[in-house]
Design a protein that fits this description.
With 290 residues, the chain is of the alpha+beta class. Helices cover 46% and strands 20% of the residues. Helix 4 packs across helix 6.
Amino acid sequence: MYHTVSYAFRNEDAAIMTIDSVGWQNVSHPRYRCSSDARPDYGHVVFQYTLSGQGYLDIDGQTLTLPKGHALVVKVAEDHCYYYNTESTQPWEFVWMNIRGEEANRIWDLIIAKEGHVIQRSADSPLIQELWNIIRLINQEKVTDRYRLSVSAYQWLMTLVQSSRDVEKDIGALSVTTIEKCKHFIREHYARPLTLDQLAEHCGINKHYLCRLFQRSEQTSPLAYLKDRRIEAALTLLRTTDLPIFEVGQKCGFENPSYFGKVFRQYMSMSPTEYRLNKLEFPYAAIYYE
């Protein structure tokens, strides 16, 4: 590893979102304080993740602790102050990144609304590993081009959003395995006349519990997930084969042709026949609903 580092980037291009500053730091000085009223730039957002030791964040009339594995998520424009407490027994070590751009501010609003100004992630999580990769990109590969840095910032922000959604699910490893088992079974056997009881039996759990797990993890039900996969398959067959409409429905798990037509119309606002003929408006070999 290398010594603690920090980098800042300055340009007049406000049209893109990019990195304002990024680095790795070890603080033990009693006067380390970052206050919003002392910063000249009001256009960026701040992410600062504790590797060891502990920091503090004053915001919204509260003092929040920033121990190992926690990060502050604030906007420079917000009234706040984060700092090192001289009573701490060890230095405050952290990595940070400040990002400029409207999209970063919008994503910050989403994250703060879901998790607050202090979020928790493990040091080996994709979010933190990608932040280290950005630091390595600058430190070792000497990348300073704002467009390449913008790509890295966008990728990191998408990882942040995804990790926030994963935290929201928070259903445990065993439950995740159960859901993936159910989803795999559905994808492999969607053409069969599956029932909720059969899905639950395959997963070895109560059907009501399966529904609760599915709703929390996927924001949908097992049978709705099954219907999505059937329609996806039907869309592909309609566009890539000359099979009769009723046979397409049967191959995708719809035994009743009229029910197939009704469900298909709910998804596509047209009949299977109309979709097959309407190649100009829908020039896709496949459409996915995940």
